[in-house]
Design goal:
The chain is of the alpha/beta class. Helices cover about 45% and strands about 15% of the residues. It has one domain: TIM Barrel (Alpha-Beta Barrel), CATH 3.20.20.220.
Length: about 300
Amino acid sequence: MSASPFVRDLLRQGTPAFSFEFFPPKTDEGETLLWRAIRELEPLRPTYVSVTCRASGSTHERTLRTVERIARETSITPVAHLTCSGVSRDQLRSTIRRLGDAGIRNVLALRGDPTGGLDAKWIAHDDGLHHAAELVRLLREEGDFSIGVAAFPETHPESPNRDTDVRFFVEKVRAGADFAVTQFFFRPADYFTLVARTRAAGCDVPIIPGVMPVTNLSSIERMAALSGADFPADLADRLRSVGDDPDKVRAVGVEVASQLCRDLLDGGAPGIHFYTLNRSTATREIYEQLGLRTG
């Protein structure tokens, strides 16, 4: 299997980067839905797609299988998420070497959520890593990877303030990260404030804003609460006014996400990372509204 191009090189091409995020399925039905979405989005020619990893070492295998299949069966550059949660250093090294052997050269290095659930305290494996910066260093030791990290426009839920959040972000970049993807958010100003603060701290890696189209009000409110994102009250009101009609909910979500993308790109964002939730319809509709390439 030939090696994937490095995302760091793709981001230097001078055109906005558009990427999609998927999660590894648990069931045969989920597998079918995922691959339908991948095949429907492939003609949009994304810069890359990423595959998440849940807060348990046991999910690394599903992530690996998915990125390997994307690399083998599609024209898309895959990025594997890798977390520190619930795994030892040796397990991480084994996973990293398997990625390299499969020609996967792009990794999003994350601390990960607590293994006991999002409400639990985060506890490292007895022989594991404690921070994403340590994982970035391990990846650098093990091979030549293009490494992405997370960024938080509204700060990480565990950060006491923006200064602390920026300090940890800069540490990840100095450890060897060469791009970042943000948690989803709804106000362009939060993204541009994050970028300005990181630039003021001497950090100039590309920070790609993450956008999640709203297709279900209760789901997005729950995810926003868990991630620390502030869900705007005026958007919630608009969605509740059409809440019994899923097509109208998606239409509002697509309209709002499209405008957010326009504002971000007009303000100089290096691209957009779409949180697809393993569906393609909303993302394809946003592409159409933005007049982006479709083949």
